C-alpha cells in the first residue's frame, strides 16, 4: 500500500469518526431539495421509491424495512441488497401510477429522476404529492447544477461530482435519523473512489482519451455518447482521461465521423438489461466496432481497448463509484501506462 | 420569366439539359462528400475516390478514407435519392389529386411506418428477427393499402374521378395508425422509450451505408423514370381527370400506377431514413416557381431540387453545432420554410 | 355513320340518368342538343366522349365500338369540351392549348414544328392571338372558354363534343364560336341552352328526363308545343323582316 492510500484510508476513518459524533436529527427538519422546501416533523415511518438509485441508496442505509414499494428499475438490484429487496413489493418495472403510490400512504416518496415528478410530472407533479400530504425527495444528483428543461436528458450547468451523491445519501440519512449509517456509507464511497484514483495515478497517464457509448437508436446511426459534465465525464476527469465529446448535454448524439477522427485511446460501452434498441446489447456494440469499416480502423478497436461498463454506473448514482473502479482496473489491465 | 417561352419548341435542341442535370446532381453529391462533421482536405477526398473508383493507390489514413467512402458518400447518395424520391412523390400527388397541400405522407404512409416501427421495437413483434426498417416498411404499405381500399370502397380515390375520397381516407388512415402507435407506446413502453422512437422517426441519415444506397438509388431512379414517362399525362391532369381522359390519358391506369409507385417510393425512403418532412410538400412548389407547371421540365427540376436540398440539409445538420448532430427534420423546416417564403414573395410579383 | 349510340344508358346506384338513347351522327354534321337542366345532356356527351362507361348499350365511332378503342386513339378522334374546367395551376394560355396535342404525342416523343403550327392555328381560330403568355388565372370566363375551344381544336379531332360552349361568351364571341364550329370540317355535337342558336344547327336533339325525346331538323323538332312540354315555357316564332330568319320569343306559360 502506497503512502497516499494509507493516508486516505486514515482520513476516511477520521471523517467517519467525526460525523459519528454528529448526533441524532433534530425535528422538525427543513431541507432545500431541488428548488422545493420540505419539512419533516419526525422520521417517515414508510417510504415508496421511484427510481432504482433512490431504492438502492435507502437499502444501503439499512432502511429496507421501511420501504413499502419500489419502481422504475433499470437493472437487477445489487447482490448485497437482494434479500431485503425480495421482501419489498415492486409497484412497477417502469413508471408507477400516482394512485398506486398514494395508496401505500408513504411518509416519503424518494425519487431518482426529476422528470418523474417534475413540472411535466410523468408520475405526478411534486405539488400533487404535497397536496395529499406526502413529501417528496429528489436525489440531488439529478437537479444540482442541472437544467432539466434543456436537452433530451437535461443539461448540466456545472460538472457532475460524486459530492451530490454523497449529499443525497446524507440527506436521506438525516430525514430518517440514521446519520451515523449515512456517514459510514459516504466514507466507504469516498474511500473506494480514492483507491481507484490512486491506482490510475500510479500509471502516470499522458494524453489518454476515451468515449462512452451508451446506445444508438438504430445500429448504424449516430450514437448516444456521454457529454462532458455527467457521471462518465467525472470518472474520466478523476482518472486523468480526456473525454473526446464536448457537449453539456447528458447524452448527446455525436456522429461516428467525429468519434473516429478523434480516435480515442479507450472506448467504454454500456451493458444494460434494457432492449429498446438493438444497440442496447453490448454484444451488438462490440460487433459494430469490429465490423464497421471505419470503426475497425480506430486505435481503441485495433488494440482491443474496449471497456464494458454497467450502464447504471454511468448514471449519476452510488454506482458511479464502481464505474470509476472498473475504468481504473481496465487502465491497469490494458497496460495503458506511459 | 421562363415559364412561357423558354425553349419549348424542340426537345432535341435541349438535349444538354439532361447531362447538365446529371452534372449538377454529381456536383451536389460530391459537395456532400467533401463537407462533413470534421474538416477533411479536398485532396484527400479526391484521392479517396481515385483509390476506390479508379484503383489508384494513394497512401491515406484508413479512417479518413473510411469516413469519405463508407459514411459520407453513401449518405450523400441516399440523401439525394430520398430528396428526389420524396419531392417527386409530392409532385405526383399534388398533380393527380389537384391539391397543393398533398404530400407523400398524405396516404397514411408516415403514420403506418411509425406503427410498424413501434410494433417491432416496443411491442417486440418479430422477436428481434425483424429490423425497425422492415417493420416501418411493412407498416407503411399496410397503411397505404388500407387507405386505398377505404378510398375505393367510398367510391373514389385511386379508382375514380373524385379525389376527395382518397384525401379523406388518408386522413382517417393516418389518425387510425397514429392512434395505434400511441396505444402501443402507452401499453408497453415508458415515455423515455417513446422519445427514442420519435427521434428515429423524425428522420436520420446517419445510419446509412452502402446496402441502403443499393436500395434507395434504384427506387428513386425508377420513380424518376416513371414520372418522366408520365410527364405529359401529369400535364393533362391540370384540368381534372375528365379533361385528362378526353386528352387520351388512361386515367385509372395512370392513377393506379403513379399513386402505387409513390406509396412504394415513400415507404422505402421512410424505412431507410424515417419521415423527413417538408421535402415532399414544398420542393415541388419551389420547382414550379422556377420552371413552371409543365411536367416535362418540372419533373427533372423537382428531382434535382429535392436531391440537392436534402444533401444540403444533411450537411447543415452535421456542421451547425460542431461535434454534435441535429435531427435533419429540424433543418429541413428551419432552412426550407424561410427559403419557401422567399420564393412565395418573389412569385407574387409575377402576373 | 361517324358517331352512333345504341340504347345508350348510364345510371348511378340504379337511378337512371340517361337511358335508351339511340343516335346516329353523319360525318360533317352539326347536331344541337337542347333540354332543361338535369335532362342528361352533359352525361350523354360524356358517354359519347368515352369518359363515362355506359351501363347499358354502346357507342361506336366510324362503326367500331368506342369501348374497344385505347383512350389515346379515341382522343385523336374525339375532342370534348367540358362545361366548366378550371385549374389552380399557374398555367399559360399556350400551355393549355398545347395540351391538345397530348393524344398525338407518345410519352417521350419530342414536340415538333408541326405541333407548333397546329397550336398557333388553334390559337388564331379561337381569336386568342396575343393571349399566348397570359396566365390562366388572369382570364375572364369567356376567355377561358375560348382557350378550351382552342385546346380542343389543337387536338385535331374528327368529332367535337361541346358542352354549352357559348356560356360566359359575349355576344360577338358566341356568334363567332358557332360560325367557327359550323365551318370546321368536323362532326360536332353541341349542348346548347339558347334555342335560337339551336335553330342554326343541321339537326337538333331534345333531351328530357334522361331520354332523347326528339331528333330531327330544327324546324321539325322545335315546335311550339314541344317547347312548352319540355321546357315549360311559351314560345312564339317571330320572323326578322330584314332577312326572313325565324327566331323564338319566349315567355312564361299562362
Automatic annotation (TrEMBL), chain A:
SUPFAM superfamilies linked? Helical backbone' metal receptor (SSF53807)
- What does UniProt give as the signal peptide span? 1-22
The keyword Signal is annotated on this UniProt entry: yes
Task: Show the Pfam families listed in the entry.
Answer: Peripla_BP_2 (PF01497)
Q: Where is the Fe/B12 periplasmic-binding domain?
A: 46-338
The protein's UniProt keywords, in alphabetical order, are: Signal
Instruction: Specify the protein name.
Output: ABC transporter substrate-binding protein
Organism of this sequence: Aquamicrobium defluvii
UniProtKB/TrEMBL annotation, chain B:
GO CC annotations on file: plasma membrane
List the keywords (alphabetical): Cell membrane, Membrane, Transmembrane, Transmembrane helix, Transport
Residues spanning the membrane: 73-93, 105-126, 132-154, 166-186, 256-283, 295-313, 325-345
Please provide an example of a Pfam family that matches this protein in its UniProt record: FecCD
- What family classification does the UniProt entry report for this protein? Belongs to the binding-protein-dependent transport system permease family. FecCD subfamily.
InterPro entries given for it?
ABC_BtuC-like, ABC_transptr_permease_BtuC
Membrane topology classification: Multi-pass membrane protein
Query: What species is given as this protein's source?
Result: Aquamicrobium defluvii
Where in the cell?
Answer: Cell membrane
- Return the protein name: ABC transporter permease
User: What are the leading ranks of the lineage?
Assistant: Bacteria, Pseudomonadati, Pseudomonadota, Alphaproteobacteria, Hyphomicrobiales
The molecular function GO annotations come to:
transmembrane transporter activity
Q: How far does the signal peptide extend, from start to end residue?
A: none
Q: Does the keyword ATP-binding apply?
A: no
* Predominant subcellular localization, coarse grouping: membrane
UniProtKB/TrEMBL annotation, chain C:
Q: Does the keyword Nucleotide-binding belong to this entry?
A: yes
Q: Read off the SMART domains from this record.
A: AAA (SM00382)
Q: Which domain of life is it from?
A: Bacteria
Which Pfam families does the UniProt record give?
ABC_tran
Q: Which UniProt keywords apply?
A: ATP-binding, Nucleotide-binding, Translocase, Transport
Q: Which GO terms describe its molecular function?
A: ATP binding; ATP hydrolysis activity
Keyword Transferase included in the entry's annotation: no
Quote the InterPro entries the UniProt record gives.
AAA+_ATPase, ABC_transporter-like_ATP-bd, P-loop_NTPase
Which residues does the UniProt record annotate as the domain ABC transporter? Answer: 3-234
Family the UniProt entry places it in: Belongs to the ABC transporter superfamily.
Function text:
Part of the ABC transporter complex HmuTUV involved in hemin import. Responsible for energy coupling to the transport system.
The protein in question is named Histidinol phosphatase
